[in-house]
């Protein structure tokens, strides 16, 4: 099968790749670009484990075709830290034990970062609503919500 040439920006870097027209963005990230931070949980857009942003909009990478990303800006979990310096969300997830097995964590972190970029002072209800598309079978959500709220306050300087 013929592959399609795609040029996009991933985590601030112009990126080119070849992919089959039916390959999902998730498959391209993991299999073609070897960016394995984004996880596959369900493959149907129901769990949020594969969450990334495209042009600032939170998406499930299992529901977007790789060819559809041509000319767009993609942000993944790999672009969240600044070198060795963790993003405050990543640091607080570790410090507050808001992660366990790690399957959902990248998608939750990407979704939480997207929320805080849009709303730096969310209520607990807003955090819960925003992260409702990210399922976790290990933590029970309380620590995740607290870590996001703590990070929001920290980033605002509260």
Note down, in words, how this protein is organized.
It is a single chain. With 158 residues, the protein is an alpha+beta fold. It folds into two domains: 76 residues, Roll (Ubiquitin-like (UB roll)); 69 residues, [2Fe-2S]-binding domain (DNA polymerase, domain 1). The protein contains five helices and five strands. It has a five-stranded mixed β-sheet, with helices on both faces. A hairpin with a 2-residue loop joins β1 and β2. α2 crosses α5. The longest helix has 15 residues.
As laid out across the biggest beta sheet, the strand order is 2-1-5-3-4
The helix/strand class is alpha+beta
**Largest sheet, strands/sense/barrel:** 5 strands, mixed
**What is the strand tally?**
5
Radius of gyration: 16 Å
Total DSSP helices: 5
Q: Give the name of the CATH superfamily of the largest domain.
A: Beta-grasp domain
Overall number of domains: 2
CATH topology descriptor of the largest domain: Ubiquitin-like (UB roll)
Which whole number gives the mean pLDDT? 96
Question: Quick one: overall form?
Answer: globular
Order of helices and strands: EEHEEEHHHH
Please give the CATH class of the largest domain. Alpha Beta
Tell me the helix content. 25-40%
Strand content: 15-25%
Low-pLDDT residue spans:
none
CATH architectural grouping of the largest domain: Roll
How far apart, in Å, are the first and last alpha carbons? 55 Å
């Amino acid at each position: 099968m013929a592959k399609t040439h795609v040029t996009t920006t991933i985590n601030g870097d112009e990126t080119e790749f070849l992919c089959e027209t039916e390959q999902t963005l998730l498959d391209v990230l993991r299999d073609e670009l070897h960016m394995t931070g984004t996880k596959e949980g369900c493959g149907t857009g129901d769990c949020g484990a594969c969450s990334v942003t495209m042009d600032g909009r939170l998406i499930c990478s299992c529901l977007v075709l790789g060819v559809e990303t041509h000319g767009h800006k993609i942000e993944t979990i790999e672009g969240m830290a600044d070198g060795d310096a963790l993003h405050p969300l990543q640091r607080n997830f570790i410090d507050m034990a808001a992660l366990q097995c790690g399957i959902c964590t990248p998608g939750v972190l990407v979704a939480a970062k997207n929320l805080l970029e849009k709303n730096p002072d969310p209520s607990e209800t807003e955090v819960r609503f925003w992260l409702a598309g990210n399922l976790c079978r290990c933590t029970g959500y309380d620590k995740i919500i607290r870590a996001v709220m703590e990070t929001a306050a920290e980033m605002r300087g509260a």
